[in-house]
Amino acid sequence: MTSEISNSGLLSKFRGCMMGSLIGDCLGAPFEFDPPCMSKIILENYFSNLLTGGSIKMFPYTDDTCMTLSVARSLVENKKVNPKDLAKRFVDEYYSQPKRGYGMHVIDVFHALKETNFEDVFLPGKMQFNGSGSYGNGAAMRIAPIALFGHNKTDESLQRDVEECSRITHNHPNGYNGAILQCLAVKAALKSDSSKEFDPVDFISQLEKKMEAIEMKDNSPYCESLKKIKEIYLQDKEGISAKEIAECLGHDISAPKSVPTAIYSFLRGMNPISEFECLNPFARTIYFAISIGGDTDTIAGMAGSIAGAYYGIDAIPTELQERCEFKDEVDNLAYKLYDESQESTSCVLG
């Protein structure tokens, strides 16, 4: 399924991934915590209005994008994962824009980091939930830049980078393993040639195989969800409803019940959706992710980053891009990430 991608194609995929994450966040936010049985007419009209250029509204981004941009900027400037720099950027970004929708638990971590002057950037995250750590999806939602920057690294090296980035705020195995799964999904999409036939069962099987080794030590639940997704395709049940996906895979703020859902949304967008007449697979991905309800901005953002990494920037409707706050800055950052990743690869090969 993987193949050599040209430099221009790879750049398009970097840009698509970052833009896809932003679009999912911005367009999903108005529906956050809606039930999966939300009015299909409302959602259809919402997308129809956007895709035909009928809306002049600019949709703001949330904490998801705030933290994703902090990760990307840190990678560009440090040329590696630097936990202390990441922690400082997370905290500075929060204090500069505290009303972007941050959860109260991560705010507690930010306060503790600032009060201790970042002496141990992992300690506040360790202390969350009586010492068990958080397994929310806040680590997974921001991880796409690490997948891009480290796309030529081994999975083991990438896993270490993800854990270091994640454990600042999410120290529970389900939290950082969810970020690892999301990172691996983005990397797999990035390495796949969208002009060739795509096998969803093989895509999921490869992720499942990689997660099996990771979960042996932590006993986290991701392989079970990946098996459920694989069964949907093996049994030709692609027509399963958004409500059924919410019940089967979840749609809440926990990583175990949102990361697999985002991956499924990417796969679902490849085929027509009966209630949403749209030929564009990226738009279908975002539509379906939002239709599941629950934590719609994060699930759609994660699904959008995978889809964008697969299809590339040219496959993302400009009408959706133009509705997102900070669109040009995000695109510019994608260029910088690409340039730094190429330099990093040259250094390794040299």
Automatic annotation (TrEMBL):
Mg(2+) binds at residues 62-64, 295, 297-298. Its EC number is 3.2.1.143. It is an enzyme of class 3 (hydrolase). The keyword DNA damage applies. GO terms for biological process: DNA repair; peptidyl-serine ADP-deribosylation. GO terms for molecular function: metal ion binding; poly(ADP-ribose) glycohydrolase activity. Keywords: Chromosome, Cytoplasm, DNA damage, DNA repair, Hydrolase, Magnesium, Metal-binding, Mitochondrion, Nucleus. It comes from the Eukaryota. Its cofactor is Mg(2+). It catalyses: alpha-NAD(+) + H2O = ADP-D-ribose + nicotinamide + H(+). It is found in: Chromosome; Cytoplasm; Mitochondrion matrix; Nucleus. The keyword Nucleus applies. Binds 2 magnesium ions per subunit. GO terms for cellular component: chromosome; mitochondrial matrix; nucleus. Belongs to the ADP-ribosylglycohydrolase family. Monomer. This is ADP-ribosylhydrolase ARH3. The gene is Adprhl2_0.
